[in-house]
Amino acid sequence: MTKKMNVESFNLDHTKVAAPYIRLAGVTEGAQGDKIYKYDIRFKQPNKEHMKMPALHSLEHMMAEFSRNHHSQIVDISPMGCQTGFYLAVINDDNVENVLELVEKTLKDVLEADEVPACNEVQCGWAASHSLEGAKELAKDMLDQKDGWTAVFAEEA
Ligand code: ZN
Asked: Is residue 74 part of a domain?
């Protein structure tokens, strides 16, 4: 862990974090001054737990679709390959409170949903790999621990 890596999260000591948490992982400024804020939304404790693929996949579809009802400048929400969280990228919104609220509202929408949007072979690349119930469990578990979202490292918790 001595060499500085290009990717911000490769410089994060994953043994020191206390999931779930939401943390700003980077800011990229464009030539016109617009800024993209990238957040690390960590659902599961790295190297201890992970989200099962069908549940993670359904949660991805729902977060991608529902979050845009609560924020007008979302670039992307995408799952981490380690299956412990998601990255969220938003434009020109440096207010972490807005992001916390966005995640809370979106996960509450997940609990209310009675189907996974776009889980068919026309709109998705692996339509057989979904779990609405699994996604709801992940959302509920995350919401139940909302008080700890701003504490990223174990020593702050
Ligand atoms: Zn899909």
From this structure: yes
Coil, helix or strand at residue 41: strand
Q: Structural domain of residue 105, as residue ranges?
A: 14-114+121-143
155 found inside a domain: no
Q: Which helix (H) or strand (E) holds 18?
A: none
Measured CA to CA in angstroms, residue 147 lies from 46, 68, 96, 101, 117 at distances of 19, 24, 14, 12, 29
The single-letter code of the amino acid at 126 is W
- The domain total for the chain is 1
In a domain, 7, yes or no: no
User: How far, in Å, from the CA of 4 to the mean position of ligand 1?
Assistant: 34
- 18-77 pLDDT, tens per residue? 999 999 999 999 999 999 999 999 999 999 999 999 999 999 999 999 999 999 999 999
Whether the model clears a pTM of 0.85, i.e. scores above it, the answer is: yes
Cα distances from 21 to residues 4, 17, 54, in angstroms, run 23, 8, 22
Q: Please check whether residue 46 lies inside any domain of the structure.
A: yes
The Å distance, Cα 83 to ligand 1 centre, comes to 15
> What CATH number did the domain enclosing 131 receive?
3.30.1360.80
Ligand 1 mean position, distance from CA 124 (Å): 4
